[in-house]
Amino acid sequence: MQGAAGEEDGERLLLICELQAASGYAAGNVFGQNVTDTSAASADNRPMTEMILIRHGETDWNRELRFQGQVDVPLNHTGLTQARRVADRMAGESIHHVYSSDLIRTRQTALPSAQLLSLSGVDEAGLREQNFGMVDGMRVADIKAQYPQEWLEWLKFSADYLFTGGESTRSFHARVSDAVSRLAAAHIGKKLLVVTHGGVLDMIYRSAMALPLDGPRQSQIPNGGISRVRVDGEKIEILGWADVRHLDGLPPQPVYEQSRAANPLATSLPLLPSGFGSIKPA
Question: How far is Cα of residue 169 from the mean position of the Cα atoms in its chain?
Fold first, then answer.
């Protein structure tokens, strides 16, 4: 997607925090038909690896819409509650291993589930968030003031652009793909709980849906949301995406909408049908 940054009012290019009403995230945002068999096997009965993917709980920097990147930011009170709610949802799951990135916000999110399942969490650095280099930890308004040209370049969402000292989306995607493939190959036929970051989940979603790396995010990825995929080699099948039924009653989430950052006139991501479903990429 090409950047649309020509608005006279630069403030309209800020990343938007829409404190959504209760309907802001449809419970179990997914596509497709109901899933009745979630065993980790392909249509021809070849064993696959199932991954339950969790975005880390909320941090204060999420609420401030900072570029967290690889800065080690802990969960806030809401994030810790989200982590406990995720653990409650994992109680009935037959999970064999728990993985998280090596950043504290994912480790804190994984801990209640690991304790409930009597499993030890394992750090996987390949699951870290994208490295934004010189702007890691900065608010958008500060980035625009200090690095105006770099900000306009970033708004083009080119797969090969990177902030100084950072990581391009293309390099980031390769790192995430390698980590997912390694975990899947090491645990064929098993079910893994994988706690990671919004950017990592975006890369997995794009791979599953055969979407280009250029352009803004095209999926909802709420803090504490639960997504499910099957992995067979390099093929990823989405079973369910952004399930937040367990987060009912918690404060509305801050929403980071890349499409509206690039184009203030763009519409929000559409809400998807409620209920669990499946996506089988073309």
Answer: 14
pTM of the model: 0.81
Helix H or strand E segment including 122: strand 121-123
Dist. CA 37–CA 26, nearest whole Å: 23
- Output the DSSP codes for 51-84: EEEEEPPP-HHHHHTB--TTS-----HHHHHHHH
Cα 55 to chain center, whole Å? Answer: 5
Residue type, 147: Y
Task: Provide the terminal-to-terminal Cα distance of the chain, rounded to the nearest Å.
Answer: 21
Quote the tokens at residue 249: 């009653």
Smallest CA-to-CA distance from 163 within 128, 136, 197 is with: 136
Give the mean pLDDT per block of 10 residues along the chain (282 residues): 35 32 30 35 75 98 93 98 98 96 98 97 97 95 95 96 98 98 97 98 97 94 97 93 97 73 49 33 32
- Given a contact cutoff of 8 angstroms between Cβ atoms, the answer to whether 276 and 251 are in contact is no
